[in-house]
């Protein structure tokens, strides 16, 4: 009986020591350990929900540009969003589009700078597509872009920016509106 009691006390003390050690180590994590190592492109490549986006970015020759230092804010459409667009356009997929057709659409999904969800404001926002600005509506219910696409997952951080996942592909309309809020 004494052996069982000593074993139980020893196990109890070991549990407390282990818990305190784990808590102590958790408090010693530095900011540099929390910095994401993957670029926004590498994050998209690693996530099957973006396989069509990755295919389009590759076909358009934008992989190197979006892997650069940045920072960028990428509004990334899911595969379901691309499939809905392909159905609307009457095409099978990326293979039916040219790089010249894809590039302005893809650049329209990227904003210069790293803008976290809490910093998004309602307004017009300049995109990397220099001929088009997106219209953002941000309120307590969420973020909507161009009145048709919702941010469904926010703040996926990469080493060169942030991804906000959206539920529809954005199609730019040629416009030269100056930025007046939004992500800037």
Task: Report on this structure.
The chain is globular, with a radius of gyration of 23 Å. It folds into two domains: 1-34; 36-166, Roll (FAS1 domain). The protein has a seven-stranded mixed sheet. The protein contains seven helices and seven strands, in the order αααααβααββββββ. A hairpin with a 6-residue loop joins strand 3 (123-126) and strand 4 (133-139). With 184 residues, it is α+β, with helices and mostly antiparallel strands. The chain has helices at 2-27, 31-34, 40-46, 51-59, 63-67, 79-89, 99-107, and strands spanning 72-77, 110-112, 123-126, 133-139, 142-145, 149-158, 161-166. The longest helix is centred in the first third of the chain and has 26 residues, at 2-27. It starts with a helix and ends in an 18-residue tail after the last strand.
